[in-house]
Predict the structure.
Amino acid sequence: MTTWAWIVFTVFSSSCGDVLCAKGMSEGAELEEFGPKGIGHTLRYIVTRRLVILGWLCYAVSFFSLMGLFSVAELTVAVPATALSFVIDTLGAFFVLHERIPWKRWIGVLSVSAGVVLAVQQPAAPVPVVRPAMILHAGTAGNPIAGLARPSRTDRAAVQACEHQSAHVHGRSQNFHQESAPCEILVKP
Amino acid sequence: MVSNSSKMKRPSLPQHTAKTLLFLAIAVAGNSFGNLLLALGMNHMPDFAAVALPRYLLGLVENAALLAGAALTAVYTLAQVSLFSWADLSYVIPCIASSYVLSTLLGEFVLGEPVRLVRWPGVALICFGVYLVATTPVATKIHAAEAQSR
C-alpha cells in the first residue's frame, strides 16, 4: 500500500471511532472520582456501552493501520498526516452529534488543518545515483589491468572527464551516495 | 461513570477546567511518547508486504518498544474517551493536536529525523489552532445525563 492509502485508511477509521465514542460517552455522566473506584466505573461503563465498543473497534483498526503507516513513512510525516482527521471529526461533531461549534473553533480547526498541510510536506525526491561509466580499452591484450595501470593519453583524458562529471554531480546533489571511486571503469580487452 | 451515581455531578468551573487540563495533558503525553516508541519499534520490523502475516504479527508481539508504545497509546485513548463524557468532541480532538507538535519535536531531537524548514510554520499553525480552540467553551451542548437531572 502507498503512504497516502495508509493515511486515508487510518484517518477514516480514527474519525469513526471518535464520533462513536463521543456519542456513547456523552450519554452518561462525567467522571468525578479519580480513585480506583472512579476508574473502575469508567472502565465498566466503557465495556458495557455498545457505541463505545464499536468506537474501540474502529480505534483498533486505526491503530494497526497506523503501524502500517509507520512502516512506510517517517514519524515526522506519518503522525502529522493523521491530523487530517480533525476536519472529519469536526464535521461529524456538527452533523452527527449536533454540537454548537463557535467560529473561533472553526478557525482553530482550519488553522490546524493548514498546519498539517505544511507539516506533512514530503522531502524533495532524491537525485538518482549517477555513476558515470566509461569504457577503457586495455593497452595490452589479455591483461585488462594494464589498461588501468598505464592508460593511454586518450584514456587519461576520458578519466578526467568522468571525474569532472562526477564532481559536478556531487556539487549539485545532497543525496548523492558517497562513493569511494567517482567513476565506474569498465575495461575491455 | 454510571448515570445514576450520586457521586457524579457537574463540578464547578475551576475544577472542571483543571480536570480538563489534566486529562488533556495525560492524553497528549501518552499519544506523543506512545508514537515515539511505536516508531522506534517499527524501525526493527520488516516491510509489511515483504513477510507473511503470521510472522509479522509474531514480530509485533515480541517487540518491547512496540508493547510499551501500545500501553501508552491505551492510556491516551482512555484519557480521551473519558474527556468525551463532559467535553465536546470538537473541543477535545483539536486540543489533543498539541501531541503532533510534541511528536515532531521528538522525531527531530530523539529519533534524529531531519525536519524540513517548511514544516516549522506548520507546527506554529497547529499551535495557533489549538490555542483558538482551547479558548472556546469546553462543552456547548447539554449532555444526556445533565438533561435527565433537570
